[in-house]
Amino acid sequence: MTDYKLPDVWTWEDENNNKGGNRPTAGSRFEQKLPVGSAPFQVYSLGTPNGVKVTILLEELKELGIKDAEYDLYKINIGEGDQFGSDFVSINPNSKIPAMVDQSQTPNIDVFESGSILVYLAEKFGEFLPKDIQDKTEVLNWLFWQVGSGPFVGGGFGHFFHYAPEKLKYPIDRYTMETKRQLDLLDKVLATREFIAGDTYSIADIAIWSWYGQLVLGDLYEGSAEFLDIQSYKHLVEWTHRIAQRPGVKKGMAAEYKAID
Prior knowledge:
Radius of gyration: 19 Å
Mean pLDDT: 96
Distance between the termini: 47 Å
CATH class of the domain at 133-246: Mainly Alpha
Helix content: 40-55%
InterPro entries: Glutathione-S-Trfase_C-like, Glutathione-S-Trfase_C_sf, Glutathione_S-Trfase, Glutathione_S-Trfase_N, Thioredoxin-like_sf
Organism: Vagococcus teuberi
Number of helices: 9
Protein name: Glutathione-dependent disulfide-bond oxidoreductase
Shape: globular
Largest sheet: 4 strands, mixed
């Protein structure tokens, strides 16, 4: 039991002027000049599950021989608060990675939110997102499923299982239940089709593998694969390992981030 009582009005008790860290306010905290390279796409990101979605897709496009998919990749150290600098906030007012600038367009186009970036690139190059309205809708169904479901895995299960300063039964049970439900859903879907949205590899596979594939591989939270009994989801496990062997996925996961300073 806890003696915590809800206040009438919540106040932020840890108020500080640190460059990084969470605050209940948005906006830039300091002046910043981000580097800009010569490639068509400037990607400001980090190798998190959301971040690798973009590098994987760009590398998959390059594997198809699309030279216009070249990109410069810069590291936004979210632990140090780089995402709150003025230049980054001008690209993404929400101060979250990944963010991207398409400087092959005039004027430049800023794109933020990983799902939005995937759709933008897929539509720009006509790859990994079907043109047929039925097939396209199925891909988008699963892309938006991931965008809506991922926070339960990351901010919910991952936070309380791995990051929280103390282990609390109620939130761990709550988010483990939902995470396993999602894993079971994916396993049942993949029992009926080769890829997430059907018979063709798409941005839905990229988005979902970046979170759930890495969870299956045990690469997100130490000890979680055993805790979640991952091996019981055999169709999901097979899909995970099959996607992991794609050259574009390997290169996207191994992409090198340049320092912004």
